[in-house]
Amino acid sequence: MSAFYEKQGPDRLFSRLVKNFTGKGKSLAGFKDQVYALVDFLQSTADPQAWLEESFLKGYQDLDYDEVLDQLAQEIKEQLFELESFFTFHLANEGQAFSGAKYQENVTAIQDLIASLNEQFSQEAIFEVLERVVLISRASGGRSLTITTRKEDLKELATAFNDERKERIEALRAAASQHYQLTSSDSLQG
Questions:
Q1: Which of 32, 50, 98, 175 lies at a C-alpha separation of 20 to 30 Å from 105?
Q2: Do 172 and 79 form a contact (C-beta atoms < 8 A)?
Q3: What is the DSSP string of 38-57?
Q4: How far is C-alpha 147 from the chain's CA centre?
Q5: What does 59-89 look like in DSSP terms, one character per residue?
Q6: How many angstroms separate the CA atoms of 16 and 73, rounded?
Q7: 83-120: per-residue pLDDT in tens?
Q8: pTM (predicted TM-score)
Q9: Are 84 and 114 in contact (CB under 8 A)?
């Protein structure tokens, strides 16, 4: 493992470390928060060197990445199928009031992606569908799945859909970030 670190060089390793905490975002706030928390803890520990050597990385050394990825894939699969059901119900009911709206094309595209999982349940397929769903959700400045309407009588329906959709998509984005961090950490274990 030390050969891996020597080959990578400190600049490359540091960049990968920062990327683990920031994901694909541009904010370093998460990384800074972790560094500050670590510094605060080390300053309050009687023997920081011993703590670093004996405890800090212990959980990661024993972590079974394959098992964690399998569990994450199952959770994501459930979230995706729940999203598909939510979209199906919406389109069959209150979505009729928004027939032809642009967001419905994106909803249908996501339903088709998720439906492809019915044929293939591999971990790789689940993570690929997740990535594509997140990409669609981020299109148009993150508004590709948002109902917009000027009709007063439809605003309540639009708000209810948008709130529920937002909650479900944010959970999937968090899962995508977790997947990214796990696979980046796994490659660092290399």
A1: 175
A2: yes
A3: HHHHHHHSS-HHHHIIIIIT
A4: 23
A5: HHHH--HHHHHHHHHHHHHHHHHHHHHHHHH
A6: 23
A7: 999 999 999 999 999 999 999 999 999 999 999 987 66
A8: 0.68
A9: yes
